[in-house]
């Protein structure tokens, strides 16, 4: 067992656990969007950011990825954490105003849409890649991937065409934190359905 | 298959069939065809043993690869910091206007000239610079830009 | 020819010396790195070659790399046995013809002669080599020596020890200047731990950005469990305004290879990669030839120098992504994946390339290693400052008279760099700021120009050492526009994996664009600082984490300029197009009509057939008219 402090309270966890797992099992809440207990964490949304002091220095880490270490101090509500979390939610809610899930979490932390709100209510994908990971690791198929980079990054199939590899298992729909997979799924499925001799 | 099967075979022949060689294979396809044809991308993926979606991810992530045919003469105007402060933005605009004057717009099917912005060609001591093929044109000004466009439009 | 041991190395050295300094033949050397080529070195080289062939000249025409005097390119050296090395600058075809003519007539050519050097510095092999003995030649009184050139006077070439002094494709040249003897020393006279100890004691810190002690990195990798271990070289130099790595790759590739070989021995690695950006075709080719030559000589492969040490390496070609300069993204790219970084909560020394222990250093760091092994840590750590030992290469560019690659001891001040080495800002301008560290660094204003150039001072000033980009700026540069430029770049290059970088940079870009258009508010400025802190804290990798630096440093030092844009709707440097107007001073206008000829929108009209006027509603503020007006009548307000 490893002992550490979270917000001043002593907590214990198994070696190899993440700060997020230990915090949650101790009843300390940390918001997340792209975390799914079943899949390898990608650390993309950064909402679970916490401040850690390892005796040498303070650093900001993604709690879903950071393995607990003996004696560290973790702060989930420090000024830096709150500032970072505020901005992540602010940008997500402005960029993806169509997502109820995002609005809900943002609302819980007192973040409202700002003047920078996007007009595009259709794009609710936060590019966390859970669907891509699930397609690879759960379905073992890899019919979808990220394409492009930066602000143009998106989840697509190869050549943006219906994917013959897709078996329609729907695991991508299931893991998506913002219910944004429907459209792509329909497209991905199109060909798979044809191949199987059924109508999409 | 749209691309010449033989040409692609020749490329793949000396690329070891391992995922680490995906980028190298794509570089060679790009060099050969001046873009990554869709069927060539799929063939490369099969050859090095990655899913098609992974090949797609790589081909769209890196700037060196183009999924649409590039023009024969592509003017890459450096807009890196050293060139930026020496007026690269003006050079870029001048080149775009110049090619439009020659070709009707930035790049048309009839024209063999296109213009793109790139960040830093490592020729910071002689900015603004532009690259055509592997040739660097240094210390660009209005006059040199005109000559550049004329030579490459006529070819 | 295979080199099996020390004896073979000594033989190669003899061969190399004869090639570098042929006893009876004069030699013309043309600087053929990218800077030279872009300025016409290829034509000059071909000219000399064809003349030499046509006339059966008894001399040699060879190429060399870049000594760093980029503002004097194309450079040509003439080495005549028993005479000083002569360096000619800005040699175009006309000058080349004259040089050839004078040489053919048996004279010492003086056309375009820039300087002479009677002693070649050979850092690693018993010191300098006297080229000239006896009486002073008359040209030596009339032209400066190398030692008198201001650009070189303050420099100390360690990483650049061979640049411009040998043919990068010639392995024997490299060995003749002491190359591969450090490897031989490490393999035969030192235990791996002793090599690491030596590097730690030298104080060598990573030259690629962070400045992490190289020896300590090596030690973690040596201790890490797992095999094989990888030794990697980061040659993905993507910082706009930086080309130090290109200089070394094109001018002295073997110094990098030798450094990596020594590192591999110390760490216990048998395989390596050098990740080079595809935008540097000449560097890739030169490195490829160097690897082949080293392999052929047995300096890469099995049983190197007969010691039982095995190591081989390959080039991995980048795909045009700045983020691949980040260590984990670089490794993903070598594996053939998109260059997305991952969290480094487990160090790459333990789990790097293919999850194996890996050690990554940049080009300049590796090039320093053979010197430290040869001359010892004590020699090395006397150079520079206590915490930043040795020298650092910089690419000094922008609004400065002498642009080029420089290598100076750490700790010289920015003022010395700009004025003494760079010869100051071109006339008409005044030093305003210097940008260091590329898009991860920041701008340092004139108030701080007595700051010493070392890792800590630059970080403390809100910038960073980075890989050595140094862009001098004068009054004509708008700092708000510059901040926008950097965020533009970073937004374009962000991999998009994490939210703070993907969306945060986009938001910053929008805010900065508003400032340049005079639409921002003072509250926006504070908002932007708070957002910048969030990005620094929450981004996944170093690219995102350092992305706000150029913005924060410009707000810190040039807040008045932001305020001018916001409050007065004015761009003091007259750069931001929305905030300036072009007009023609009718007193100065000569009516030559050059401006109206070039105006792309027909916004310039003739008023009374004598002078011209700009129709503001049509003007797109491209500035082409100002560029062609010989009377200087076009004004920007």
Features:
heterotrimer, B: about 160 residues, alpha+beta, four-stranded mixed β-sheet, 7 helices, about 50% helix, elongated, C: about 625 residues, alpha/beta, five-stranded mixed β-sheet, 25 helices, 21 strands, about 40% helix, about 15% strand
In short:
The complex is a heterotrimer of chains A (200), B (155) and C (637). Chain A is an alpha+beta fold.
How is the topology of this model organized?
The complex is a heterotrimer of chains A (200), B (155) and C (637).
Chain A: E1 2-6, E2 9-13, H1 19-25, E3 49-53, E4 58-62, E5 73-75, H2 79-95, H3 100-108, H4 130-137, E6 144-147, E7 154-157, H5 171-175, H6 182-195
Chain B: H1 5-13, H2 22-33, H3 38-48, H4 52-61, E1 73-78, H5 81-84, H6 88-103, E2 113-118, E3 130-132, E4 135-137, H7 142-154
Parallel strand pairs in B: 1-2
Antiparallel strand pairs in B: 1-3, 3-4
Helix pairs in contact in B: 1-2, 2-3, 3-4, 6-7
Chain C: H1 6-20, E1 27-31, H2 34-38, H3 41-55, E2 60-64, E3 76-79, E4 85-88, H4 93-104, E5 113-117, E6 119-120, E7 129-130, H5 138-142, H6 150-153, H7 171-176, H8 181-189, H9 192-202, H10 214-223, E8 230-235, H11 244-251, H12 253-267, E9 271-276, H13 281-296, E10 301-304, E11 309-317, H14 327-334, E12 358-362, H15 363-375, H16 377-380, E13 391-398, E14 404-409, H17 414-421, E15 431-436, E16 442-445, H18 455-460, E17 469-474, H19 479-493, H20 499-516, H21 522-538, H22 542-546, H23 549-567, E18 582-584, H24 594-598, E19 604-606, E20 612-614, H25 624-628, E21 634-636
Helix pairs in contact in C: 3-4, 8-12, 8-15, 9-10, 9-12, 11-13, 12-15, 19-20, 19-23, 20-21, 21-23
Description:
- The complex is a heterotrimer of chains A (200), B (155) and C (637).
- Chain A is an alpha+beta fold.
- Chain A has helices at 19-25, 79-95, 100-108, 130-137, 171-175, 182-195, and strands at 2-6, 9-13, 49-53, 58-62, 73-75, 144-147, 154-157.
- The longest helix of chain A is centred in the middle third of the chain and has 17 residues, at 79-95.
- By secondary structure, chain B is of the alpha+beta class.
- Chain B is built from seven helices and four strands; from the N terminus they run ααααβααβββα.
- Residues 104-109 of chain B have low confidence and may be disordered.
- Chain C is globular and about 85 Å long.
- Chain C starts with 5 loop residues before the first helix and ends with a strand.
- Chain C has 637 residues and is α/β, with parallel strands linked by helices.
- In chain C, a hairpin with a 5-residue loop joins β3 and β4 (85-88).
- In chain C, strands 2-1-3-4-5 form a five-stranded mixed sheet, with helices on one face.
């Amino acid at each position: 067992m490893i002992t550490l402090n979270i917000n001043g309270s002593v907590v214990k966890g198994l070696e190899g656990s993440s700060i997020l797992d230990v915090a949650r099992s101790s009843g300390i809440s940390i918001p997340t969007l792209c975390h799914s207990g079943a899949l390898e964490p990608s650390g993309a949304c950064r909402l679970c950011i916490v401040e850690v002091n390892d005796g040498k220095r303070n650093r900001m880490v993604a709690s879903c990825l950071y393995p607990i270490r003996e004696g560290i101090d973790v702060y989930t509500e420090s000024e830096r954490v709150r500032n970072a979390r505020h901005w992540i939610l602010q940008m997500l809610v402005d960029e993806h105003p169509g997502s109820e899930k995002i609005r809900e979490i943002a609302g819980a932390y007192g973040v409202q849409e700002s003047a920078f709100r996007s007009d595009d209510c259709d794009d609710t994908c936060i590019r966390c890649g859970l669907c891509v990971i699930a397609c690879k690791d759960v379905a073992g198929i890899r019919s979808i991937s990220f394409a492009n980079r930066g602000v143009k990054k998106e989840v697509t199939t190869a050549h943006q065409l219906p994917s013959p590899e897709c078996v329609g298992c729907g695991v991508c729909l299931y893991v998506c934190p913002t219910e944004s997979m429907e459209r792509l799924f329909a497209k991905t499925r199109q060909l798979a359905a044809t191949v199987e001799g059924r109508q999409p | 298959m749209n691309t010449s099967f033989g040409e692609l075979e020749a490329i793949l022949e000396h690329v070891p069939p391992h995922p680490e060689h995906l980028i190298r294979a794509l570089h060679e396809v790009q060099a050969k065809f001046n873009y990554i044809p869709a069927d060539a991308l799929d063939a490369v993926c099969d050859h090095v043993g990655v899913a098609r979606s992974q090949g797609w991810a790589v081909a769209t992530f890196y700037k060196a690869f183009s999924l649409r045919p590039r023009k024969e003469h592509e003017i890459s105007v450096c807009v890196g910091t050293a060139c930026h402060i020496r007026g690269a933005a003006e050079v870029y605009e001048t080149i775009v206007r110049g090619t439009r004057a020659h070709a009707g717009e930035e790049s048309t099917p009839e024209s063999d000239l296109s213009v793109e912005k790139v960040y830093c060609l490592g020729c910071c001591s002689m900015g603004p610079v532009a690259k055509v093929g592997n040739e660097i044109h240094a210390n660009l000004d209005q006059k040199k830009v005109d000559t550049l466009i004329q030579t490459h439009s006529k070819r | 020819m295979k080199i099996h041991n020390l004896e073979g190395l000594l033989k190669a050295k003899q061969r190399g010396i004869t090639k570098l300094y042929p006893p009876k033949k004069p030699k013309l050397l043309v600087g053929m790195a990218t800077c030279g080529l872009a300025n016409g070195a290829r034509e000059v080289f071909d000219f000399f070659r064809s003349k030499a062939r046509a006339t059966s000249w008894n001399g040699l025409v060879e190429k060399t790399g870049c000594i760093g005097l980029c503002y004097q390119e194309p450079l040509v050296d003439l080495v005549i046995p028993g005479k000083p090395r002569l360096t000619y600058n800005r040699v175009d075809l006309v000058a080349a013809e004259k040089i050839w003519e004078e040489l053919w007539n048996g004279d010492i050519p003086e056309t375009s002669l820039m300087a002479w050097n009677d002693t070649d510095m050979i850092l690693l092999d018993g010191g300098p080599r006297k080229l000239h003995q006896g009486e002073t030649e008359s040209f030596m009184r009339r032209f400066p020596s190398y030692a008198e050139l201001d650009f070189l006077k303050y420099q100390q070439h360690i990483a650049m020890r061979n640049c411009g002094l040998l043919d990068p494709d010639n392995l024997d040249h490299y060995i003749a200047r002491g190359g591969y003897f450090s490897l031989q020393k490490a393999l035969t006279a030192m235990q791996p731990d002793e090599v690491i100890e030596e590097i730690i004691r030298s104080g060598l810190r990573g030259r690629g950005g962070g400045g992490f002690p190289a020896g300590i990195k090596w030690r973690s990798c040596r201790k890490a469990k797992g095999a094989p271990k990888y030794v990697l070289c980061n040659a993905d130099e993507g910082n706009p305004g930086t080309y130090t790595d290109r200089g070394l790759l094109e001018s002295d590739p073997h110094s990098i290879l030798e450094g990596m070989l020594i590192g591999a021995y110390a760490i216990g690695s048998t395989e390596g990669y050098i990740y080079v950006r595809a935008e540097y075709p000449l560097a890739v080719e030169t490195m490829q030839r160097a690897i082949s030559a080293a392999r052929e000589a047995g300096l890469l492969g099995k049983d190197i120098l007969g010691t039982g040490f095995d190591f081989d390496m390959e080039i991995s070609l980048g795909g045009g992504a700045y983020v691949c300069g980040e260590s984990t993204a670089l490794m993903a790219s070598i594996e053939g994946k998109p260059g997305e970084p991952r969290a480094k909560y487990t160090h790459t020394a333990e789990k790097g390339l293919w999850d194996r222990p890996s050690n990554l250093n940049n080009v300049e760091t590796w090039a320093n290693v053979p010197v430290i092994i040869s001359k010892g840590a004590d020699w090395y750590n006397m150079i520079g400052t206590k915490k930043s030992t040795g020298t650092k290469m910089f690419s000094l560019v922008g609004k400065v008279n002498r642009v080029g690659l420089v290598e100076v001891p750490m700790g010289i001040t920015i003022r010395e760099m700009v004025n003494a080495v760079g010869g100051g800002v071109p006339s008409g301008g005044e030093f305003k700021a210097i940008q260091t560290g590329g898009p991860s660094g920041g701008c340092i204003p004139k108030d701080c120009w007595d700051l010493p150039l070392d890792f800590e001072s630059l970080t403390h000033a809100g910038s960073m050492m980075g890989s050595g980009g140094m862009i001098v700026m004068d009054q004509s540069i708008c700092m708000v526009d510059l901040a926008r430029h950097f965020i533009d770049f970073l937004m374009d290059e962000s991999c998009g994996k994490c939210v703070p970088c993907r969306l945060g940079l986009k938001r910053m870009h929008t805010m900065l664009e508003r400032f340049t258009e005079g639409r921002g508010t003072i509250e926006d400025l504070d908002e932007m600082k708070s957002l910048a802190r969030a990005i620094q804290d929450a981004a996944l990798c170093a690219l995102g984490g350092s992305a706000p630096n150029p913005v924060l440093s410009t707000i810190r030092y040039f807040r008045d300029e932001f305020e001018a844009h916001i409050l007065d709707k004015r761009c003091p440097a007259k750069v931001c197009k929305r905030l300036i107007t072009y007009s023609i001073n009718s007193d100065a206008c000569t009516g030559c009509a050059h401006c109206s000829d070039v105006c792309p929108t027909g916004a310039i009209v003739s008023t009374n057939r004598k002078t011209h006027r700009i129709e503001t509603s049509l003007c797109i503020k491209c500035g082409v008219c100002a560029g062609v007006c010989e009377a200087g009548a076009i004004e920007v307000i």
